[in-house]
Amino acid sequence: MRWSPFLGIPLVIALISFLFFKIFPLSSLIGSPPPLQPRLFSAEELSFYNGSDPHLPIYLAIVGSVFDVTKGKSHYGAGGGYNHFAGRDASRAFVSGNFTGDGLTDSLQGLSSPEVKSVVDWRDFYFKTYIYVGKLDGRYYDSKGNPTKYLKGVEAKAARGAQLLEKQKDEEAKVPSCNSRWSQDEGSEVWCDDGYPRLVQRPIEIALTGKMSKRCACYKEDELEQAGLEVYEGCDFFAKKCRI
C-alpha cells in the first residue's frame, strides 16, 4: 500500500488552526460586546432595579444621572448598608444622612451651597467608579433627556459653594489653626506652637451654611487686642495651651 503525501495535509491544517486559536483566542477576535447605550428612565422603571430581583442589575440615581452599581451589590443589594439608595434618586440623603421617609428625596431645596457641592461631588464619584447607564426623567432631566432649569440651578449653586470654600480656605490660611487632641483621661486641649489660642468667628460661615461657627486660631501677642477674639473659658490670657 502506497502512502499519499496528501494524507498529511488535514493534520497540518488542524495543527496550524490549533496553534492559531491558542495564540489568538476567539474572544479576542470577536471583541467585547458594545457597551449599553444610555437611556431615559422613569421613576417607576428605576424602582425595579432596587436589588430585590437577583436577575436584574442594581441601579441608583443621583442628581438625575443613573448608574449601574451591581459590582457593589454587597453594599447596594438587599440587606446592604446602602440599599436605601438603590432603585431611586435619593440625592439629598448623601449629605443629610436621613435615610428614611422624606429624607430619601431628590430635592436639594434648602441645602447650603457647600452641601449642594458635596452632592454634585458624589455624582462625580459615581461617574468615575461605576457605569453610567442613563438619565432619570423628572426633576433634573425632562422627558427628552434635556437638563432642566433645576439642574442648571443646582450646578450653579455647587460652583458657588466651591468658590466660597476656596475663599474660606484662603482666609483661614492667613491665621494658622490651633493644634488639638483628645484623650479619655485628659479630655480635649488646644495649643499653639507660635502664638496664643483664640476662638474666632469664621467670616464666611454664614454664607456657606447659613449658621455661625467658630474655630481655634493662633494669634501673635501684638494681635491679641483685635475685636472678635475670644479667650477659652478657664484659660489664662497668655496661655499657649488650653484644656477645653
UniProtKB/TrEMBL annotation:
<feature type="domain" description="Cytochrome b5 heme-binding">
    <location>
        <begin position="41"/>
        <end position="137"/>
    </location>
</feature>
<keyword id="KW-1133">Transmembrane helix</keyword>
<keyword id="KW-0812">Transmembrane</keyword>
<keyword id="KW-0472">Membrane</keyword>
<dbReference type="InterPro" id="IPR036400">
    <property type="entry name" value="Cyt_B5-like_heme/steroid_sf"/>
</dbReference>
<keyword id="KW-0754">Steroid-binding</keyword>
<comment type="similarity">
    <text>Belongs to the cytochrome b5 family. MAPR subfamily.</text>
</comment>
<protein>
    <submittedName>
        <fullName>Membrane-associated progesterone-binding protein 4-like isoform X1</fullName>
    </submittedName>
</protein>
<dbReference type="Pfam" id="PF00173">
    <property type="entry name" value="Cyt-b5"/>
</dbReference>
<feature type="transmembrane region" description="Helical">
    <location>
        <begin position="6"/>
        <end position="24"/>
    </location>
</feature>
<dbReference type="InterPro" id="IPR050577">
    <property type="entry name" value="MAPR/NEUFC/NENF-like"/>
</dbReference>
<keyword id="KW-0446">Lipid-binding</keyword>
<dbReference type="InterPro" id="IPR001199">
    <property type="entry name" value="Cyt_B5-like_heme/steroid-bd"/>
</dbReference>
